[in-house]
C-alpha cells in the first residue's frame, strides 16, 4: 500500500495534475480535482419551478444555497435512483458552487499531461466540446472532462449567460 | 438641529479611503494611448465622491485638492484634452496628497505641506493645456501679481521635479561611533585637525560629492547638524552613513526650502550656495502669490490647495526651531508627535516624494489604533458566514433535541437541561449576529441637516429639512451604499431644485424651501424618498440639452423618458459649474450605486412645484418577515409586507372570465387569481376548488389572489440569493433556509402576477372554441 502511495506522491511532485474519477452509466470520467470542493450524500432538495428535470433543485450546504444537477438525467442514463449510496460531487466552478449527482466516485489519480490523449469524434454521452481528452488507467478508459466549460455552458442552463460571457 | 458630525467621520474616512484606492487602481489601469471613457468617468466619480464627502464634513483642504483634480478630469472626460502619462502621474500624486490629508484628519490634525500646493499647481497647469514651465503666465487674467505667482510656483514645481532636497542631518559623533576624544573640527584649524576627526571629515567629503553641504556648529559633546542639498535619495545617503558609522544614530530629515534658507542665514559661517537653488525665489514672492491665487479665479489652484502655505512654512520652521533649541536631543522634541515630523519630512524631491509619503502614512498607521478601536470594519461576507454558522448551530440543536426526545426525562435530566441551555444560547447568539447587520436609517439621515445647512448657505437659499421614518431598519450593507447617492440627491435638490428666496416669493411660494427625506418599507421593498418643493424639472430645457448633446430621443417622449435624461453621464442643465453640483455626475453616480444594489430610481416632477426622487431597494441583503405557505410538498415564503389578508375560499368565489383568465371574488371586487401550482408546473394542472387558502397580496398592479394549499407559520428569514450559485428564477426573489435545514424559495408576488398573465389559460380548449362573446 505504501509503495503506490509513494509513487503517487512522486508523480504529483513532478508537476502532474490530480483528477477525480467517477462513473456515469458504463463510462468513467475524470475531472480536475481542484474543481472539487467535497463529496457528500444526496439530501432532500427543494425543487425549482420551471427548470429542466435534470436540475433537481437546491440544497442548503452550511448556509449556502447549492443547485443540484443529476448528470444521469442530463445524459439519459437509464434508471435513476436516490438512496443512501447516491453521491453528490460538490464542485467549485470559478466561485460558483454546484452539486453534481453521479453513479459513483471511483478514485483520485495523478496524470501527466502526455498521458491524456486527444479525443476523436465519438459518441460519448458528452459533447466532445467539453472533453479534454482520454486517458488509460489500468486498461480502463477515462474521459477527461472540462467541467468548468461544461457547467457554464448554455446547455446546462446553470448560469445566466450574460454572467458567464 | 445640532448633530455631532464627528460620529460619521469614521465612515467618511473609510469611504474616502475606498474611493482613493479605487481611483488609484483605475489610474494605474488606464491606457494613456487609448483611454477608456468609462474608466475616466469612474475616476471622475471617485474624485467627485471624495469632494462631496470632504465638503460635507468641512475638510476644506481635501475638497480643494479634489476640486482641482476634478476640473482636469472633467476636461479629459469631455475629451477636450487627451490624457498623458504626465497627467496620470499628477493624479497619482494628488491621490497621495489626499491620502496624507485623510490620514491627518483621522488623527484630528491638519496636513500641511507644500506638496499640496505643488500638486494643485501641476493639475491646474495641466488642465490649462500646457506644460508647467516657468515664466509662463498662469492664466489670461493679465494681473501681474498672479502672473508672477504662477511663474514662481511653476519654477518651484520644476525644481521639485529636478529633485533637489535639503536634508537636515543631525547626529552625535559619540553615539554614531566617531572618536570624540579628538577635538572636533570647529575648535581647531581644520588642516591640522584632519587626522583628529578623519571619520567625520571623510563623511562630510563624501556627502559634499553628492550635493552642497553646509556644516553647522561642531562642538565637543554637541550634536553635529549639517545641511545637505542634493538630489540623492534618502536610502542612498543612509547607505553612505552606514559605510562610515552607525547609521541608526543619525537623524536625517528633509526640510522645507525656507527652513533651509532661514537656517542658512542664521547658521554662522554657513555656506550660502544653497540659495542659488532657483526654487527659493518663490518664498520671497510667496505672499503675493498666495494673495493672487486666493481670489476665486481660474488661477486658483496654483497655491489654491493651500492658502495656509505660509502657515505651513511657519509651522515647519517653528518645528525646526524647537528642534534646534532641543540641542542634545536626537529625537525630535518629545512634545512633537512623530507624525508631524514625518509630515514635514515629506517634501519636494520628486524621487523621494513616494518614499516620503510612505513614511508619513507609516507613522500615521502606527498612531491610528486609538481612532480605530471603537469600531471595526468587517466584510459583509464574514458576517454572512457567521449568520450561516449560527443557523447551522440552531439546526443542529433541533436535531439533537429530536433524537433526545425519546430519552427518559428523569434519567437524563442533565442532557435535557443542557439542551435547553444550548437552545437559549444559540437563539441569543443568532439574534445578536442578525442584529449586526441591521441599523436604523437615521445613521445616514443624521448627516443631512448639516449638509442641507451648509449647502443652502453656500447657495444663499433658505431650506428646511424634514426627516421621516428614521427608525426604518435596514441592512448595514445597504446603509453604507445609500449614503453617497443620497448625498448627491440632497445637494442636487438644493442646488437645482430649490429656487432662490426672491424667485420663490415671486412664484407665490413660501420663501423657505422644503426638502423631505422619507424612508419606509413597502411591499418587501425599502423606499427612500427625496422630495423638494422647488422648481421641478424643465422638460423643454432637458430636451434642448439632449438635442445639443445628440442624445437620441423619441419624437414625443413621455415625461418619464425625459426625466431619465438627467441620469446620463455628463448631463447637466445647470448654467454654471459650482463645487456643489453642475458637472452632471451626481445623478450618474446615484443611478449606478442604486443599480448595483438591484434597486431602482424613479423621478416624479412637476414644473414649478417640485421633484420627488424615489429610491426603491429590494430586500436582497436584508432579513424578511415572511409567511411560509405549503404547496404540495414544497414550502414557499411569501413576504409578509405583501400580504393583505388570507381567506378560506368558497367555490362560488372563483369565476372565470371569457373562459380564460380566472378571478377571485372578494367583497365586491374581482381580483386576478394566481394558481401557483399551475404556474410552477407542479403535478397536474389544478382547477380552483375550495380546498385551499387564498392569500390576497399587494402588487404593483393592484391586488391579486394567490391560491395555496396551506398557511404554515410566520418566520423571520434571511434572504439568500439564488443567483450566487444558480441563476434568476422567475417568480422567485430569493431563497432562505428553514429551521429544519431545508431550502425554501421566497416568492416575488409582482412577478408571479405578471407571469400568470403571460401564461396561457388553464383550458387549452379555448383556442378551438373561439372566444365566446
Report on this model:
The complex is a heterodimer of chains A (165) and B (773). With 165 residues, chain A is α+β, with helices and mostly antiparallel strands. Chain A contains four helices and ten strands, in the order αβββββαβββββαα. In chain A, the strands form two sheets. Chain A has a five-stranded mixed β-sheet. A five-stranded mixed β-sheet of chain A has the order 3-6-7-5-4. The longest helix of chain A is centred in the first third of the chain and has 12 residues, at 2-13. Chain A starts with a helix and ends with a helix. Chain B is of the alpha+beta class. Chain B has 28 helices and 22 strands. In chain B, the strands form five sheets. Chain B has a six-stranded mixed β-sheet. In chain B, strands 6-8-9-11-10 form a five-stranded mixed β-sheet. In chain B, helix 1 (9-29) runs antiparallel to helix 4 (85-106), helix 2 (37-56) runs antiparallel to helix 3 and helix 9 runs antiparallel to helix 10 (234-244). The longest helix of chain B is centred in the middle third of the chain and has 25 residues, at 380-404. Chain A binds chain B through residues 44-51, 57-60, 62-67, 96-98, 157-160, 163, and chain B through 384-385, 387-389, 391-392, 634, 679-682, 720-732, 735, 737, 741-745.
Amino acid at each position: 500500500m505504501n509503495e503506490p502511495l509513494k509513487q503517487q506522491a512522486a508523480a504529483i511532485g513532478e508537476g502532474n495534475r490530480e483528477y477525480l474519477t467517477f462513473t456515469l452509466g458504463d463510462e468513467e470520467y475524470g475531472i480536475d480535482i481542484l474543481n472539487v470542493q467535497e463529496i457528500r450524500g444526496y439530501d432532500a432538495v427543494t425543487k425549482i419551478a420551471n427548470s429542466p428535470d435534470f436540475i433537481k433543485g437546491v440544497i442548503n450546504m452550511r448556509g449556502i444555497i447549492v443547485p443540484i444537477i443529476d448528470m444521469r438525467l442530463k445524459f439519459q442514463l437509464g434508471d435513476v435512483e436516490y438512496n443512501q449510496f447516491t453521491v453528490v460531487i460538490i464542485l467549485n466552478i470559478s466561485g460558483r458552487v454546484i452539486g453534481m449527482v453521479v453513479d459513483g466516485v471511483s478514485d483520485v489519480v495523478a496524470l501527466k499531461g502526455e498521458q491524456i490523449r486527444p479525443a476523436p469524434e465519438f459518441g460519448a454521452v458528452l459533447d466532445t466540446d467539453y472533453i479534454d481528452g482520454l486517458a488509460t488507467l489500468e486498461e480502463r478508459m477515462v474521459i477527461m472532462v472540462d467541467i468548468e466549460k461544461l457547467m457554464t455552458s448554455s446547455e446546462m442552463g446553470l448560469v445566466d449567460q450574460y454572467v458567464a460571457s | 438641529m445640532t448633530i455631532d458630525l464627528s460620529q460619521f467621520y469614521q465612515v467618511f474616512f473609510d469611504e474616502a479611503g475606498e474611493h482613493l484606492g479605487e481611483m488609484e487602481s483605475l489610474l494605474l489601469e488606464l491606457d494613456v494611448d487609448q483611454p477608456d471613457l468609462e474608466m475616466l468617468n469612474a475616476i471622475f466619480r471617485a474624485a467627485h465622491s471624495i469632494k462631496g464627502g470632504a465638503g460635507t464634513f468641512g475638510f476644506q483642504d481635501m475638497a480643494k485638492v479634489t476640486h482641482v483634480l476634478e476640473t482636469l478630469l472633467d476636461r479629459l472626460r469631455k475629451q477636450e484634452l487627451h490624457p498623458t502619462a504626465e497627467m496620470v502621474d499628477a493624479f497619482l500624486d494628488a491621490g497621495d496628497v489626499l491620502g496624507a490629508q485623510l490620514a491627518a484628519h483621522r488623527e484630528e490634525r491638519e496636513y500641511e505641506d507644500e506638496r499640496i500646493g505643488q500638486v494643485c499647481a501641476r493639475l491646474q497647469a495641466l488642465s490649462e493645456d500646457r506644460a508647467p514651465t516657468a515664466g509662463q503666465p498662469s492664466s489670461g487674467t493679465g494681473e501681474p501679481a498672479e502672473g508672477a505667482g504662477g511663474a514662481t510656483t511653476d519654477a518651484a514645481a520644476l525644481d521639485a521635479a529636478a529633485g533637489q532636497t535639503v536634508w537636515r542631518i543631525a547626529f552625535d559623533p559619540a553615539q554614531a561611533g566617531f572618536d570624540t576624544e579628538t577635538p572636533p573640527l570647529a575648535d581647531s584649524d581644520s588642516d591640522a585637525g584632519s587626522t583628529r576627526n578623519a571619520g567625520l571629515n571623510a563623511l562630510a567629503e563624501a556627502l559634499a560629492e553628492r550635493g552642497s553641504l553646509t556644516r553647522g556648529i561642531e562642538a565637543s559633546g554637541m550634536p553635529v547638524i549639517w545641511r545637505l542639498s542634493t538630489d540623492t535619495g534618502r536610502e542612498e545617503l543612509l547607505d553612505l552613513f552606514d559605510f562610515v558609522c552607525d547609521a541608526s544614530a543619525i537623524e536625517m530629515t528633509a526640510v522645507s526650502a525656507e527652513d533651509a534658507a532661514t537656517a542658512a542665514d542664521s547658521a554662522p559661517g554657513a555656506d550660502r550656495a544653497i540659495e542659488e537653488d532657483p526654487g527659493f525665489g518663490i518664498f520671497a514672492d510667496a505672499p503675493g502669490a498666495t494673495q493672487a491665487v486666493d481670489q476665486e479665479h481660474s488661477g486658483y489652484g496654483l497655491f489654491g490647495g493651500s492658502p495656509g502655505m505660509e502657515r505651513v512654512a511657519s509651522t515647519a520652521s517653528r518645528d525646526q526651531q524647537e528642534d534646534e533649541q532641543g540641542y542634545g536631543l536626537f529625537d525630535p522634541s518629545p512634545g512633537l508627535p512623530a507624525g508631524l515630523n514625518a509630515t514635514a519630512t515629506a517634501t519636494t524631491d520628486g524621487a523621494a516624494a513616494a518614499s516620503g509619503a510612505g513614511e508619513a502614512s507609516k507613522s500615521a498607521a502606527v498612531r491610528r489604533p486609538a481612532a480605530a478601536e471603537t469600531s471595526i470594519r468587517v466584510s459583509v461576507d464574514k458576517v454572512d458566514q457567521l449568520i450561516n454558522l449560527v443557523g447551522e448551530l440552531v439546526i443542529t440543536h433541533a436535531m439533537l433535541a429530536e433524537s433526545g426526545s425519546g430519552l427518559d426525562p428523569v434519567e437524563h435530566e442533565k442532557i435535557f437541561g443542557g439542551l435547553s441551555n444550548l437552545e437559549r444560547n444559540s437563539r441569543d447568539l443568532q439574534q445578536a449576529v442578525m442584529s449586526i447587520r441591521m441599523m436604523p436609517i437615521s445613521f445616514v439621515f443624521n448627516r443631512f441637516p448639516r449638509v442641507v445647512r451648509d449647502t443652502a448657505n453656500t447657495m444663499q437659499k433658505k431650506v428646511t429639512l424634514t426627516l421621516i421614518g428614521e427608525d426604518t431598519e435596514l441592512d448595514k450593507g445597504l446603509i453604507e451604499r445609500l449614503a453617497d447617492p443620497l448625498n448627491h440627491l440632497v445637494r442636487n435638490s438644493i442646488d437645482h431644485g430649490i429656487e432662490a428666496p426672491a424667485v420663490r416669493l415671486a412664484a407665490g411660494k413660501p420663501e423657505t424651501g422644503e426638502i423631505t427625506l422619507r424612508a419606509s418599507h413597502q411591499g418587501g421593498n425599502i423606499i427612500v424618498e427625496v422630495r423638494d418643493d422647488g422648481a421641478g424639472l424643465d422638460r423643454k430645457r432637458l430636451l434642448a440639452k439632449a438635442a445639443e448633446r445628440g442624445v437620441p430621443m423619441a419624437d414625443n417622449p413621455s415625461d418619464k423618458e425625459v426625466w431619465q435624461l438627467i441620469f446620463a453621464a455628463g448631463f447637466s442643465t445647470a448654467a454654471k459649474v459650482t463645487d456643489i453640483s453642475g458637472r452632471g455626475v451626481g445623478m450618474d453616480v446615484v443611478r449606478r450605486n442604486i443599480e448595483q444594489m438591484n434597486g431602482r430610481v424613479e423621478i416624479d416632477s412637476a414644473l414649478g412645484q417640485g421633484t420627488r426622487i424615489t429610491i426603491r431597494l429590494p430586500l436582497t441583503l436584508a432579513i424578511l418577515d415572511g409567511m411560509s405557505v405549503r404547496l404540495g410538498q414544497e414550502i414557499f415564503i411569501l413576504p409578509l409586507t405583501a400580504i393583505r389578508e388570507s381567506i378560506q375560499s368558497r367555490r362560488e368565489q372563483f369565476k372565470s372570465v371569457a373562459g380564460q383568465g380566472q378571478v377571485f371574488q372578494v367583497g365586491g371586487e374581482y381580483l386576478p387569481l394566481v394558481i401557483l401550482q399551475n404556474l410552477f408546473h407542479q403535478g397536474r394542472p389544478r382547477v380552483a376548488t375550495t380546498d385551499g387558502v387564498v392569500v390576497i397580496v399587494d402588487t404593483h398592479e393592484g391586488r391579486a389572489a394567490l391560491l395555496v394549499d396551506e398557511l404554515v407559520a410566520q418566520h423571520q428569514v434571511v434572504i439568500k440569493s439564488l443567483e450566487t450559485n444558480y441563476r434568476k428564477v422567475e417568480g422567485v426573489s430569493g431563497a432562505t433556509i428553514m429551521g429544519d435545514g431545508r431550502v425554501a424559495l421566497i416568492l416575488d408576488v409582482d412577478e408571479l402576477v405578471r407571469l400568470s398573465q403571460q401564461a396561457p389559460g388553464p383550458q387549452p380548449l379555448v383556442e378551438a372554441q373561439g372566444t365566446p362573446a
